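agent: user wants the structure for Aminopeptidase P N-terminal domain-containing protein from Anopheles dirus. delegating to structure tool.
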Amino acid sequence: MKHTKRYLVGISALLVLVVGGGVALGRALNKDDDLMEDTTPKTMDAILTEIRSLMQDYSIEAYIIPSVDAHNSEYISLHDRRYQYVTNFTGSAGTAIITLSKAAFWTDSRYHLQAENQIDPTYWTLMKEGLIGVPSRDEWLLTNLSPGAQVGTDPFLIASTEFERLGGVLGRQGYRMITLERNLVDIVWNNRPPQTSEDLLPLALAYSGQRSSDKIQALRVVLQENSANAIVVSALDEIAWLLNLRGSDISYNPVFFAYMIVSHGNIHLFTNPDRINETIRAHFRTEGIVVDVRDYRDILAGIEEYVKGGNRLIVSTACSQALYAAIPADQRTQLYSVLAKMKAVKNEVEAIGMRRAHIRDGAAVVRYLHWLEKVVDEGNVTELSGAAQLREFRSQQDMFVDLSFTAISAFGPNGAIVHYSPTEETDRLITRDGIYLIDSGGQYLDGTTDVTRSIHLGEPTVFQRECFTRVLKGFLSLASAVFPVKASGTVFDVLARKALWDVGLDYGHGTGHGIGSFLGVHEYPPSFVSNSASPSNQGMVENMFSSNEPGYYEPGQFGVRIEDIVQVVKASVPYDFNGRGALTFYTNTVVPIQQKLIELSLMSAAEITQLNAYHRRVLDEVGPLLQQQDDPDAFRWLTDATKEIVMS
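agent: tool returned. relaying tokens verbatim.
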């Protein structure tokens, strides 16, 4: 398909962006390109050839394709999986960069093995982030561009902070970062799935714990504190939380496509107006708010109205370059998301709901583990069929809505792929000859769950037992930690790794992520990572919830991970950190940890006491529910799985 040269001129349908003296064009939001009549899937060669032809039309030497949508979402709809279309990689994180002669894809250690299996080396160079000798995206660009070259991207798909950072790196070397009028992948993508716009679900006060009007009022206090007139909200989970609404526009994530602008006197919601029916309008009345509903595509026009009125607007550091650039610098305040910090601290109703949801979820997982041990010798349970059975057990629990993510059901060597998801091509039989790792979760009206257990249904090796036990020691160390208010997440990352580090073992992912209340399975803050400069490392406060998930992965052999969801609660210690306040963790997850994989000689008496106490609580909380659900066999299995460990 031949394209005429694009010139840098502004027209009414486009957003004009000025970057470092260079002007480029941004496209109108969510205005899909005309679909070609021929929807026959294209080859990788054809896709890259067409993109490179477009790059020449736009006078750019490199084009960046992030793995997010216009809301900087980690999990995105099929409509937005542009990086998957050009690379065939199905993981949730990565960045593709295409030049006129090369193509490279960067992803973190969670996906190194998966990307090896999915990326075609004929067309792509896989860059395994974090490994010695692997160039960063910045370094690679600087060595693959000709003098004065331009690098392009979609302004809606890159965070403003990253655009400014990378633009600065390139600018100092004589290159220029620009944004383009249209997304090049969208032009080429001839069989693109349609955008989703599903019905909305009002979340009752019995589950939300706080009316939307109260949340809006708290947000307006932030506006006043920052001498601002309005705030632009682009994160989907923040909008869902603020309005006490849930959706299903993205699989397993109860969110919906929307933007918001909240001022001292108005609430503007930009979404598909067709789904704001009488049920939703009645919900707004119940929540004590009046909402001006506009079309999703009108967000830039909405911002422009406030800008023309001389108002100062707050935007998040995670907002897109398109939204950021629509507000003049002297009318713009940029902060780490105030809503993310508000949402991370659960209210009493949410906290109680999370505990209750985890008990029901624990019953589902226990029933699955019992079932698996009972039927494994029949020789017909695979990673996929096992995950399907676990979903069935979850669906039988009260208040179940959906899964919280695609289960990581991984046997043997597949367990070494940190975020592995079984497919028809990779599906393995689950047997007694290896470690089975099952990482899964559910969405319930009163909470979100995420739990991982690693089990061996046969006889584990000495090395497998050692690895599992060292992971367990770090897991128990983190779970029992006492720490001051606002302690950094890096502290907990080290606690979880120490037993592995003692013998030169490690894992390549973070140790903990926040989790929503009937929202995203990943939310930030908090986070337990080694990088103290991570924006999501905001410090721990009471009623934050996080995962606790150390692991170890032996490529080609097995993976071990243990994961619970923990809640930050007050602790009582003699000195209370000189009045600063003491905190600790309460473990919400109630699923037994397999004792067969524990090497007791590596465990301290205190660790065994801690594990025994946890198992007593698992039996006390999950056991009665199994009996209510008329599953005496699973109850007997649980009784055995939680038996006290006695040191000889």
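agent: one observation worth passing along. The first helix runs from residue 44 to 57.
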